Amino acid sequence: MTASRLLLLGPPGAGKGTQAKLLVERLQVPQISTGDMLRAAVASGSEVGKRAQGYMDRGDLVPDEVVIGVAEERLARADAEKGFILDGFPRTAAQADALDRLLERRGTPLERCLCMVVADDELVSRLLKRAELEGRSDDDEETVRNRMRVYREQTAPLIDHYRGLGVLREVDGLGSVEDIASRIEEALA
Ligand code: AMP
User: What's the structural domain count of the chain?
Assistant: First the structure.
């Protein structure tokens, strides 16, 4: 049996989004990316988007209550019943607790947390390259460094949380997309 309730954890630029998309094909469950949903909210000019925009532009985290609402609504949709690939959520202890409680209520606990490991220097150069290619407004150097600091301070502690739950697998995030995908495959078995 391959796990299908997954969380991809790792710093910005670790390749979570790329691997999440491959996993969508492979497992036929949706990718749930709070970053993508928040960018869509900003683009549509919704209330959530208005609350989120300033934080996102600075590379800070959007307040927990906003993000938890967005994620819970998405997880409640029918297509997430048979599984999901969480990408970029949770990012704080409060978000992780909210997720644990939600999944416990549903009786569908998380099966794997895949933590993608990539050295800092490599991350900065990947993110600056992505800035050129995609023109994301939160990919300039100062914002990139802030996002990495925010990750270290607020999100990296979740690694221990998921280790404690017995679902953590660390995956070397260096190498080709295919190499990393096959390491993930092993970690899901
Ligand atoms: P991402 O595309 O996952 O790197 O997210 C882009 C930005 O959206 C982040 O820098 C945050 O400002 C915001 N964001 C996305 N997910 C979360 C989350 N789980 N908690 C707080 N802010 C988030």
Answer: 1
